[in-house]
Amino acid sequence: MRSLRVGLAGVGRFGRLHAAALARLPGVQLAALADSDGPLLETVADRHGVEARYRDVLDLIGDDSLDAIVLATPDELHFQQATAALTKGRHLFIEKPMAGTWREASLLRNQAKESGVHLQVGMILRYEMSHRLLYQQVVSGRFGRLVSIQCRRNCSRTSFAKIADRIHTVYRTLVHDIDLLLWLTGSRVDLVMSLEYREGSHLAPEGCFALLRLESGCVAQLESSWFVPEKAPANLVGDAWNGCIDSGLSVVGTCRSARIEGLKSPLQVWTDQGSQCPDAVLWPELDGQVHGALRDQLEDFVLSIRQARRSTVACLDSAVESIRIAEAIVDSSRTGNPVRLGATPQSD
Length: 348
Ligand SMILES: NC(=O)c1ccc[n+]([C@@H]2O[C@H](COP(=O)([O-])OP(=O)(O)OC[C@H]3O[C@@H](n4cnc5c(N)ncnc54)[C@H](O)[C@@H]3O)[C@@H](O)[C@H]2O)c1
Hints:
Blueprint: E1 4-9, H1 13-22, E2 28-34, H2 38-48, E3 52-54, H3 57-61, E4 68-71, H4 78-87, E5 91-94, H5 102-115, E6 119-121, H6 129-139, E7 146-155, H7 160-163, H8 169-185, E8 189-197, E9 207-214, E10 219-225, E11 245-253, E12 257-261, E13 269-271, E14 274-276, E15 285-286, E16 289-290, H9 292-306, H10 316-335, E17 339-340
Protein backbone atom coordinates (compact mmCIF):
# COMPACT_ATOMS: atom_id res chain seq x y z
CA MET A 1 0.00 0.00 0.00
CA ARG A 2 1.40 3.41 -0.91
CA SER A 3 2.11 5.98 1.76
CA LEU A 4 -0.52 8.57 2.55
CA ARG A 5 0.86 11.90 1.35
CA VAL A 6 0.25 14.53 4.00
CA GLY A 7 0.83 18.28 3.75
CA LEU A 8 1.25 20.39 6.87
CA ALA A 9 0.32 24.08 7.01
CA GLY A 10 1.93 26.06 9.83
CA VAL A 11 5.28 25.06 11.28
CA GLY A 12 5.23 27.37 14.30
CA ARG A 13 5.48 26.14 17.89
CA PHE A 14 2.83 23.47 17.56
CA GLY A 15 3.16 22.78 13.84
CA ARG A 16 6.80 21.79 14.37
CA LEU A 17 5.63 19.06 16.73
CA HIS A 18 3.13 17.89 14.11
CA ALA A 19 5.94 17.84 11.55
CA ALA A 20 8.18 15.72 13.77
CA ALA A 21 5.33 13.30 14.52
CA LEU A 22 4.14 13.03 10.89
CA ALA A 23 7.68 12.54 9.58
CA ARG A 24 7.93 9.26 11.49
CA LEU A 25 4.41 7.89 11.33
CA PRO A 26 4.29 4.51 9.57
CA GLY A 27 2.48 4.63 6.24
CA VAL A 28 2.77 8.41 6.02
CA GLN A 29 4.92 10.62 3.86
CA LEU A 30 5.22 14.19 5.08
CA ALA A 31 5.18 15.44 1.49
CA ALA A 32 4.76 19.21 1.72
CA LEU A 33 4.98 22.09 4.18
CA ALA A 34 3.60 25.62 4.12
CA ASP A 35 4.39 28.64 6.25
CA SER A 36 4.54 32.36 5.52
CA ASP A 37 7.82 32.58 7.48
CA GLY A 38 10.32 31.59 4.77
CA PRO A 39 13.43 30.91 6.92
CA LEU A 40 11.40 28.88 9.41
CA LEU A 41 9.81 26.90 6.57
CA GLU A 42 13.25 26.08 5.11
CA THR A 43 14.61 25.00 8.51
CA VAL A 44 11.73 22.65 9.28
CA ALA A 45 11.57 21.29 5.72
CA ASP A 46 15.34 20.61 5.71
CA ARG A 47 15.08 18.90 9.09
CA HIS A 48 12.56 16.41 7.76
CA GLY A 49 13.72 16.21 4.15
CA VAL A 50 10.48 17.65 2.74
CA GLU A 51 10.86 18.92 -0.82
CA ALA A 52 7.59 20.70 -1.56
CA ARG A 53 7.62 24.04 0.30
CA TYR A 54 4.97 26.73 0.02
CA ARG A 55 4.78 30.22 1.46
CA ASP A 56 1.04 30.34 0.78
CA VAL A 57 -1.25 27.75 2.39
CA LEU A 58 -3.58 27.90 -0.63
CA ASP A 59 -0.72 26.61 -2.81
CA LEU A 60 -0.25 23.66 -0.46
CA ILE A 61 -3.99 22.99 -0.56
CA GLY A 62 -3.83 23.14 -4.38
CA ASP A 63 -1.08 20.50 -4.53
CA ASP A 64 -2.98 17.59 -6.10
CA SER A 65 -0.35 15.06 -5.03
CA LEU A 66 -1.57 15.37 -1.41
CA ASP A 67 -4.16 13.07 0.16
CA ALA A 68 -4.56 14.89 3.44
CA ILE A 69 -3.76 18.19 5.11
CA VAL A 70 -2.96 19.12 8.69
CA LEU A 71 -3.68 22.73 9.65
CA ALA A 72 -1.58 24.13 12.49
CA THR A 73 -1.85 27.77 11.44
CA PRO A 74 -3.09 30.59 13.69
CA ASP A 75 -6.61 30.02 15.04
CA GLU A 76 -8.21 32.89 13.13
CA LEU A 77 -7.19 31.39 9.75
CA HIS A 78 -8.65 27.92 10.29
CA PHE A 79 -12.11 28.44 8.81
CA GLN A 80 -10.96 30.01 5.55
CA GLN A 81 -8.14 27.50 5.02
CA ALA A 82 -10.28 24.52 6.04
CA THR A 83 -13.02 25.58 3.61
CA ALA A 84 -10.45 25.69 0.81
CA ALA A 85 -9.03 22.27 1.74
CA LEU A 86 -12.46 20.63 1.93
CA THR A 87 -13.46 22.21 -1.37
CA LYS A 88 -10.44 20.46 -2.88
CA GLY A 89 -11.62 17.17 -1.35
CA ARG A 90 -8.64 16.77 0.97
CA HIS A 91 -8.95 14.82 4.21
CA LEU A 92 -8.32 17.35 6.94
CA PHE A 93 -7.00 17.56 10.48
CA ILE A 94 -7.51 21.03 12.03
CA GLU A 95 -5.93 22.12 15.25
CA LYS A 96 -8.48 23.44 17.71
CA PRO A 97 -10.51 25.59 17.57
CA MET A 98 -11.92 24.38 14.27
CA ALA A 99 -13.53 27.80 13.59
CA GLY A 100 -14.33 31.12 15.21
CA THR A 101 -18.13 30.71 15.28
CA TRP A 102 -20.62 27.89 15.62
CA ARG A 103 -22.02 28.73 12.18
CA GLU A 104 -18.61 28.34 10.59
CA ALA A 105 -17.92 25.09 12.48
CA SER A 106 -21.28 23.70 11.31
CA LEU A 107 -20.50 24.71 7.72
CA LEU A 108 -17.20 22.82 7.83
CA ARG A 109 -18.87 19.72 9.24
CA ASN A 110 -21.56 19.82 6.55
CA GLN A 111 -19.02 20.37 3.81
CA ALA A 112 -16.94 17.39 5.00
CA LYS A 113 -20.00 15.16 5.16
CA GLU A 114 -21.18 16.17 1.72
CA SER A 115 -17.80 15.57 0.13
CA GLY A 116 -17.21 12.33 2.06
CA VAL A 117 -13.82 13.35 3.45
CA HIS A 118 -12.51 12.70 6.92
CA LEU A 119 -12.44 15.85 9.08
CA GLN A 120 -10.90 15.67 12.54
CA VAL A 121 -10.24 18.38 15.13
CA GLY A 122 -7.25 18.39 17.48
CA MET A 123 -8.94 17.57 20.77
CA ILE A 124 -5.73 16.08 22.07
CA LEU A 125 -6.86 15.23 25.61
CA ARG A 126 -9.08 12.43 24.31
CA TYR A 127 -5.83 10.67 23.34
CA GLU A 128 -4.02 11.16 26.65
CA MET A 129 -3.87 7.87 28.52
CA SER A 130 -5.14 9.03 31.96
CA HIS A 131 -8.16 10.65 30.32
CA ARG A 132 -8.79 7.51 28.25
CA LEU A 133 -8.64 5.29 31.32
CA LEU A 134 -11.03 7.58 33.14
CA TYR A 135 -13.39 7.64 30.15
CA GLN A 136 -13.38 3.83 30.03
CA GLN A 137 -14.45 3.65 33.68
CA VAL A 138 -17.11 6.32 33.27
CA VAL A 139 -18.75 4.75 30.19
CA SER A 140 -18.67 1.30 31.77
CA GLY A 141 -20.92 2.74 34.49
CA ARG A 142 -18.48 2.30 37.38
CA PHE A 143 -18.90 5.94 38.43
CA GLY A 144 -22.69 5.60 38.61
CA ARG A 145 -24.34 8.86 37.55
CA LEU A 146 -22.01 11.81 37.08
CA VAL A 147 -22.73 14.55 39.62
CA SER A 148 -20.09 17.17 38.90
CA ILE A 149 -17.02 17.87 36.80
CA GLN A 150 -14.43 20.58 37.45
CA CYS A 151 -11.84 21.58 34.88
CA ARG A 152 -8.93 23.96 35.45
CA ARG A 153 -6.63 25.17 32.70
CA ASN A 154 -4.46 28.03 33.92
CA CYS A 155 -1.53 29.18 31.81
CA SER A 156 1.67 31.19 32.25
CA ARG A 157 1.25 34.92 32.54
CA THR A 158 4.10 35.29 30.03
CA SER A 159 2.10 33.43 27.34
CA PHE A 160 -0.88 35.79 27.47
CA ALA A 161 0.57 38.48 25.18
CA LYS A 162 0.78 35.98 22.30
CA ILE A 163 -2.97 35.45 22.21
CA ALA A 164 -4.43 38.50 23.97
CA ASP A 165 -5.64 40.32 20.86
CA ARG A 166 -5.99 37.31 18.57
CA ILE A 167 -8.46 34.92 20.16
CA HIS A 168 -10.80 34.73 23.15
CA THR A 169 -9.60 32.57 26.05
CA VAL A 170 -12.62 30.26 25.72
CA TYR A 171 -11.67 29.35 22.15
CA ARG A 172 -7.96 29.09 22.87
CA THR A 173 -7.99 26.95 26.00
CA LEU A 174 -11.44 26.10 27.37
CA VAL A 175 -12.57 24.32 24.18
CA HIS A 176 -10.43 21.39 25.36
CA ASP A 177 -12.41 21.17 28.59
CA ILE A 178 -15.78 21.69 26.93
CA ASP A 179 -15.02 18.76 24.63
CA LEU A 180 -13.92 16.63 27.61
CA LEU A 181 -17.19 17.41 29.32
CA LEU A 182 -19.27 16.32 26.33
CA TRP A 183 -17.13 13.19 25.92
CA LEU A 184 -17.24 12.08 29.56
CA THR A 185 -20.94 12.79 30.15
CA GLY A 186 -22.28 11.80 26.71
CA SER A 187 -24.84 14.49 27.44
CA ARG A 188 -25.77 17.90 26.06
CA VAL A 189 -25.16 21.18 27.85
CA ASP A 190 -28.48 22.99 28.30
CA LEU A 191 -27.57 25.95 30.53
CA VAL A 192 -24.50 28.19 30.56
CA MET A 193 -23.55 30.92 33.04
CA SER A 194 -20.19 32.63 32.99
CA LEU A 195 -18.08 35.50 34.28
CA GLU A 196 -14.81 37.02 33.15
CA TYR A 197 -11.91 38.66 34.93
CA ARG A 198 -10.32 41.44 32.88
CA GLU A 199 -7.32 43.66 33.52
CA GLY A 200 -7.09 45.21 30.07
CA SER A 201 -9.28 45.69 27.03
CA HIS A 202 -7.92 42.77 25.04
CA LEU A 203 -10.04 40.43 22.95
CA ALA A 204 -9.16 37.68 25.43
CA PRO A 205 -10.15 38.03 29.08
CA GLU A 206 -7.35 37.23 31.51
CA GLY A 207 -9.71 34.92 33.37
CA CYS A 208 -12.78 33.02 32.30
CA PHE A 209 -15.12 31.07 34.62
CA ALA A 210 -18.18 29.10 33.56
CA LEU A 211 -20.85 27.05 35.25
CA LEU A 212 -22.67 24.63 32.98
CA ARG A 213 -25.61 22.28 33.46
CA LEU A 214 -25.90 19.14 31.40
CA GLU A 215 -29.18 17.51 30.43
CA SER A 216 -28.07 14.47 32.44
CA GLY A 217 -28.17 16.65 35.59
CA CYS A 218 -24.39 16.82 35.94
CA VAL A 219 -23.01 20.28 36.81
CA ALA A 220 -19.66 21.46 35.48
CA GLN A 221 -17.30 24.25 36.50
CA LEU A 222 -14.67 25.38 34.02
CA GLU A 223 -11.88 27.83 34.71
CA SER A 224 -9.06 29.21 32.59
CA SER A 225 -6.77 32.14 33.38
CA TRP A 226 -3.34 33.50 32.49
CA PHE A 227 -1.64 34.22 35.81
CA VAL A 228 0.64 31.25 36.48
CA PRO A 229 3.87 32.90 37.74
CA GLU A 230 7.12 32.60 35.84
CA LYS A 231 8.77 30.47 38.52
CA ALA A 232 5.98 27.89 38.72
CA PRO A 233 7.20 24.37 37.84
CA ALA A 234 7.49 24.36 34.04
CA ASN A 235 5.82 21.50 32.19
CA LEU A 236 6.34 23.01 28.74
CA VAL A 237 10.08 22.77 28.33
CA GLY A 238 10.70 21.85 24.69
CA ASP A 239 12.68 23.83 22.10
CA ALA A 240 9.80 26.11 21.27
CA TRP A 241 8.03 26.08 24.61
CA ASN A 242 8.70 27.45 27.99
CA GLY A 243 6.05 27.76 30.61
CA CYS A 244 3.37 26.04 32.55
CA ILE A 245 -0.16 24.83 32.01
CA ASP A 246 -1.61 24.18 35.44
CA SER A 247 -4.47 21.89 34.52
CA GLY A 248 -6.72 19.64 36.52
CA LEU A 249 -9.86 17.58 36.09
CA SER A 250 -12.04 16.36 38.91
CA VAL A 251 -15.02 14.05 38.35
CA VAL A 252 -17.57 13.14 41.01
CA GLY A 253 -20.01 10.32 40.38
CA THR A 254 -22.60 8.71 42.63
CA CYS A 255 -20.31 5.66 43.05
CA ARG A 256 -16.75 6.88 42.41
CA SER A 257 -14.76 10.04 42.01
CA ALA A 258 -11.47 10.75 40.26
CA ARG A 259 -8.98 13.46 39.52
CA ILE A 260 -6.24 14.06 37.02
CA GLU A 261 -3.55 16.59 37.89
CA GLY A 262 -1.69 17.92 34.86
CA LEU A 263 1.39 18.95 36.84
CA LYS A 264 1.90 15.61 38.59
CA SER A 265 4.67 14.33 36.33
CA PRO A 266 6.78 11.59 37.92
CA LEU A 267 9.84 13.41 36.53
CA GLN A 268 10.86 16.46 38.58
CA VAL A 269 13.92 18.46 37.59
CA TRP A 270 15.38 21.28 39.68
CA THR A 271 17.50 23.94 38.00
CA ASP A 272 18.99 27.28 39.06
CA GLN A 273 16.19 28.96 37.07
CA GLY A 274 13.38 27.04 38.72
CA SER A 275 11.89 23.57 38.76
CA GLN A 276 10.53 21.56 35.84
CA CYS A 277 8.11 18.68 35.55
CA PRO A 278 8.43 17.98 31.83
CA ASP A 279 5.32 16.76 30.02
CA ALA A 280 5.67 13.05 29.39
CA VAL A 281 2.21 12.38 28.03
CA LEU A 282 0.93 15.04 25.61
CA TRP A 283 3.79 15.70 23.20
CA PRO A 284 7.10 14.63 24.78
CA GLU A 285 10.07 15.03 22.43
CA LEU A 286 12.82 12.43 22.56
CA ASP A 287 15.70 12.10 20.08
CA GLY A 288 13.90 14.30 17.55
CA GLN A 289 10.70 12.25 17.77
CA VAL A 290 7.37 13.29 19.22
CA HIS A 291 5.47 10.76 21.28
CA GLY A 292 2.34 10.73 23.41
CA ALA A 293 -1.16 11.94 22.69
CA LEU A 294 -0.19 14.18 19.75
CA ARG A 295 1.35 11.27 17.88
CA ASP A 296 -1.52 8.95 18.77
CA GLN A 297 -4.17 11.32 17.49
CA LEU A 298 -2.34 11.80 14.18
CA GLU A 299 -2.02 8.03 13.86
CA ASP A 300 -5.77 7.72 14.46
CA PHE A 301 -6.39 10.41 11.82
CA VAL A 302 -4.32 8.47 9.28
CA LEU A 303 -5.89 5.10 10.12
CA SER A 304 -9.40 6.57 9.89
CA ILE A 305 -8.61 7.73 6.34
CA ARG A 306 -6.95 4.46 5.34
CA GLN A 307 -9.72 2.31 6.72
CA ALA A 308 -12.48 4.69 5.52
CA ARG A 309 -14.04 4.72 8.97
CA ARG A 310 -14.86 7.26 11.62
CA SER A 311 -12.48 7.73 14.48
CA THR A 312 -13.63 5.88 17.58
CA VAL A 313 -12.01 8.55 19.76
CA ALA A 314 -12.43 11.91 18.06
CA CYS A 315 -15.94 13.23 17.47
CA LEU A 316 -16.66 15.92 14.91
CA ASP A 317 -20.14 16.65 16.27
CA SER A 318 -18.67 17.23 19.69
CA ALA A 319 -16.01 19.56 18.27
CA VAL A 320 -18.77 21.57 16.57
CA GLU A 321 -20.92 21.57 19.71
CA SER A 322 -17.90 22.75 21.74
CA ILE A 323 -17.81 25.89 19.59
CA ARG A 324 -21.51 26.41 20.19
CA ILE A 325 -20.96 26.21 23.94
CA ALA A 326 -17.89 28.47 23.68
CA GLU A 327 -20.11 31.06 22.00
CA ALA A 328 -22.68 30.74 24.78
CA ILE A 329 -19.96 31.24 27.44
CA VAL A 330 -18.75 34.43 25.73
CA ASP A 331 -22.34 35.61 25.37
CA SER A 332 -23.21 34.97 29.00
CA SER A 333 -20.13 36.88 30.22
CA ARG A 334 -20.95 39.78 27.93
CA THR A 335 -24.61 40.12 28.91
CA GLY A 336 -24.44 38.89 32.49
CA ASN A 337 -27.33 36.55 31.72
CA PRO A 338 -27.54 32.76 31.63
CA VAL A 339 -27.80 31.24 28.15
CA ARG A 340 -30.16 28.33 27.51
CA LEU A 341 -29.16 26.07 24.65
CA GLY A 342 -31.94 24.45 22.67
CA ALA A 343 -31.70 21.08 20.95
CA THR A 344 -28.75 20.67 18.60
CA PRO A 345 -30.19 21.17 15.12
CA GLN A 346 -27.67 18.99 13.28
CA SER A 347 -26.12 15.81 14.55
CA ASP A 348 -25.05 12.40 13.29
N1 LIG B 1 -3.96 20.96 20.83
C1 LIG B 1 -3.21 21.71 21.62
O1 LIG B 1 -3.00 21.41 22.78
C2 LIG B 1 -2.55 22.95 21.05
C3 LIG B 1 -1.48 23.54 21.71
C4 LIG B 1 -0.89 24.67 21.13
C5 LIG B 1 -1.40 25.20 19.96
N2 LIG B 1 -2.46 24.60 19.37
C6 LIG B 1 -3.03 25.16 18.13
O2 LIG B 1 -2.08 25.05 17.07
C7 LIG B 1 -2.24 26.14 16.18
C8 LIG B 1 -0.91 26.83 15.99
O3 LIG B 1 -0.50 27.37 17.23
P1 LIG B 1 1.02 27.78 17.50
O4 LIG B 1 1.13 28.03 18.95
O5 LIG B 1 1.94 26.81 16.85
O6 LIG B 1 1.09 29.17 16.71
P2 LIG B 1 2.39 29.85 16.12
O7 LIG B 1 2.04 31.29 15.96
O8 LIG B 1 3.60 29.48 16.89
O9 LIG B 1 2.54 29.19 14.67
C9 LIG B 1 1.72 29.54 13.58
C10 LIG B 1 2.56 29.41 12.31
O10 LIG B 1 1.73 29.75 11.19
C11 LIG B 1 2.45 30.61 10.34
N3 LIG B 1 1.49 31.48 9.63
C12 LIG B 1 0.85 32.57 10.10
N4 LIG B 1 0.04 33.08 9.15
C13 LIG B 1 0.19 32.28 8.06
C14 LIG B 1 -0.37 32.31 6.76
N5 LIG B 1 -1.28 33.22 6.39
N6 LIG B 1 0.01 31.36 5.90
C15 LIG B 1 0.93 30.42 6.26
N7 LIG B 1 1.49 30.35 7.48
C16 LIG B 1 1.12 31.28 8.36
C17 LIG B 1 3.38 31.40 11.23
O11 LIG B 1 4.53 31.87 10.50
C18 LIG B 1 3.76 30.35 12.27
O12 LIG B 1 4.93 29.64 11.92
C19 LIG B 1 -3.32 27.05 16.79
O13 LIG B 1 -4.55 26.77 16.19
C20 LIG B 1 -3.36 26.63 18.25
O14 LIG B 1 -4.62 26.84 18.88
C21 LIG B 1 -3.03 23.49 19.86
